[in-house]
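User: We ran a pulldown and think these components assemble together. Before we commit to crystallization trials, I'd like a predicted model of the whole complex to look at. Sequences follow.
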Amino acid sequence: MPRKILIMHVIFLTLLACQVESPHATTPLVCPGLAPTLPQFTQQISPLLEKRCGDALCHGRPERPYALYAAGARRLDPATLWKAPLTGEEVKANYASTLGFLDNPYPRQTTLVLKAVGLLGHKGGSVFAAPSDPECQAVIAWMLGQEAP
Amino acid sequence: MNTLPMRLSLFLFAMLSLIACQDPLPTVTVLHPDPNPMTPADPKWTPQPHRDRPRQICTNSSGSKAWITLAGIEDAPGTQVAVVDLAGQKPLKRLDLPGTPWSCAVSPDDRYVVITLRYSDHAIVLDAQTDAEVARIPVPFYSEGVLFSPTGSRVFLSNRWKDSVLWWDVDIRNDFQVLSTNYDQVPAEDPMGTPVSDNPGPMAISTDGTKLFVGSVAGCTIAVLDARTGALIDVDQDPKTTTRGAPKGISHLDFHSPVGGLAVKDAYLFIADTGRGLGGQPTTGLDVDDNGEPGDGTANLSFQDQQNEIGVVDTASLHEVHRYTSDSICCKDFRDVDANHPGKGLALPLADQWSPDVVNFLPPKENWLVAGALPEAMVVQGQSLWVAFAGSNEVQGFGIGTTGQLTPLQTAGQLYHTGFNPKSIASAGKDRVVTVNRLGESLTFIDVTKATGKAESHVIIGDNKAGPFPQTDAEMGEGINEMTSVFTIDGDQTCVQCHRDNGSIARPFVMPLQNSRAWSVRAVMAQRGLYDTRPWFFESAMNEDNFFPVLNEFVRRENFCCEELDMMIWAKYPKISACQNDPTLPGCNHVLHCADDPPPECATRPYGSPQFSTRSAFIKDAANKLFGRETAFGDALYNLDLNGKKQPLELNFDGMTKAVGLFMMRTPRLLPNPNRHLNLPTAARGKVLFEQAGVGCNSCHPLPNTTTTPLPVPFSPFGMPVRFPPVVSPELRPDGSDAMLVNDAFIATFPLTEQTAAGLFVGSTPLRGLWDRPQTRFYHDGRARSLRETLATPGHAILKAGEIGHNERHGSFDTHGGTSQLTPYQLQDLINFVLTL
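Assistant: Here's a predicted model for the assembly, 986 residues in total across the polymer chains.
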């Protein structure tokens, strides 16, 4: 009996948690309540993340759990010109990676934001001084599928 | 063994435990206004009486008991509520509150009273029987209006800071329990609630409880919400249209007029406002009302275009079905558009002319029903609508018909008289209403079965210890500012029609002495922070002793026959100089001795003052009517006679101007800034940008005054002049000429004015209090619809779709500060800092 209960708990928690499938899956899952889109990510968020997070010493490294492609840093195809804008595929990969850290229905409580504002351990320190920073607000708005304030 | 001491000890222990276990009420944070820069060092400073300034009233359902918020003034806010026995017409007690009370609402079951505290982060709940405080509910600062749903299960709050509607879902069957809010867990700095227009105030709910109407004073619109879901209703159901400032695709009820009051009866919503006129021609010139057509669609011009109106909207269709206007829309002022004399307009001086077809824009005469000035509050009682007029100290009743049509129960001369400045009105039992008179520190009870003069009784509930208002020259100036109507030729207008609650509204207006009244307008400036930002107005040419064009508009000398300025009469007579040379010329008897021998036309002209032949006589009489005196008090406004004795100024035009100017300076009236209180990093970064030489804000808007000024002490830390050529493209006429200029009369009246071939020189508009101003009208003509548009160069990445960057002059960018080099995030940091000023 306790084993069955344990299995049921695992199933229940799995359903509760916000899962993201691997970057190579066709339809990543997103936490209920969040509505990020690729077009807004492409236009607004990817450039921001590249600039603030994508340095080769930070998340521009493939071994990071949160790994990004960025112009002037990590590229998908080594033959790509170093500082050329990201390709569509690279942006999509960044999108999928980022979705993996949208793990809470409240944007301010996602790992992405908590680490970026220094509320969770983050070797890079505070990327944003506070969630009220315009850049962080833009990321939050993207998570909610809203226009940046 | 004696068990009594043991039992007593146990009992005491139990009681102490109970007390210890009760949750104490949460601590309330209160914002505080900045100090007054006008100090006793200024010769015009004099001590002012303390006043309670009663503001809003809420009553139980029988009208037997009321709570009245004693709001104080912006710089000395109150902290008490007066509890009043309405049946006995007497104050019962005062309650001390942890903050600054603004408004209140009683639950439908009469068990609870919710009181909003303007400068505080909590609202409080009282037990309506005992008046004990039973709960404090966290709210954002500036939650002002409050309204229960008809079932009592929801409490709506209008919030001035967030420009939104918040609500609590409550269970009040036992204790007052807030089950949830629509702003749970939203950080204080974020938008919250359902966005409505700027500075929402009055609210009303439809009879069936499905629609919530939220009037905006500064935004001049009425948002309509689904009261069940909180979602905005798109009034025109057209996603392609958006009311200025509303979320994309949403249209509000938009009558282009600050909303003074709302009331609902059956299927109808009644709206008190000041009409849609913006001072321009009806069909030519700028599209001042944004309806896609030139002009503003109303007949009268300039300040004569201000009216006092009541609109009636069908709450099902959301269409306006009736609109009633001032009973004196015509013809007391010599310029008024007159359907009986359509040719008169062309005989007027050029600046005031109107063409005969303009008469078609007058409302039907059967709708000229509203007899008071500045309708600010309304209440429905039975089949009657009672309207309080804050500008003329009156109440007028209207019978409500089956289609929402109104029939006046009183007309001019029959209106009930209240104490000074009635700001709210409520039912006080059968056949009785009561007004709260803010400047009068009183309540006025009106028995509506009786005629005026016999119906009214007044009770003091505020602070009249220093004597009844006014007691000083500054108080007199405040009284003139609020109750200007008695000083106006048609009894219709007040300064605060536009400068509502001493703030500004999103309603640019055609101002007198503009060179082009068709192709230029001026935004309304707030009456705040004026002592250390003189000279005033965009032209930075007016000070506290002289803002002639504004007051002049209310009571032009042409309306007084013996001022000999009415060209429709005096053009037929010789000039004064000719009569002085030869008094025997025909008509010189009238020219030289008008007071005793006026021309016969004076008696028969259909406009102007029939009683007074000169303006100064009219004004002195008005001062007598309003204040019971013809001179200032002399504490600050006086001349010295030959013996060195102070002689109070006469209350003529000059005295009236100086009294208002003194009031303007006396206290800042700047509302404490909630954004500054948050102390956010984005604002700190924005301040760095503000002060950066490359951005340049601080040069012309130097902190802390945010403007350069010579008074009271010269302040221009970077050596910038007080006035300089426009930094943005001036408005142009169709022929390409500069429409922003002022005319020669303006320059003659205000010698400080600078106007050259480069254009009209303007001052740097003070930025303090900008957070509280309408967020859709910036620059001198209100062209910029957001701070983004104000600061961004054309095409800047921060601009949203459809927005225009106005930081340019004739195609050169960065003429209003260097912002093109800023990223959108930096520019947002700058905006966030400016919103903390």
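Residues 3 and 522 of chain B are 84 Å apart (CA to CA). That may be worth checking against your pulldown data before setting up trials.

User: Thanks, that helps.
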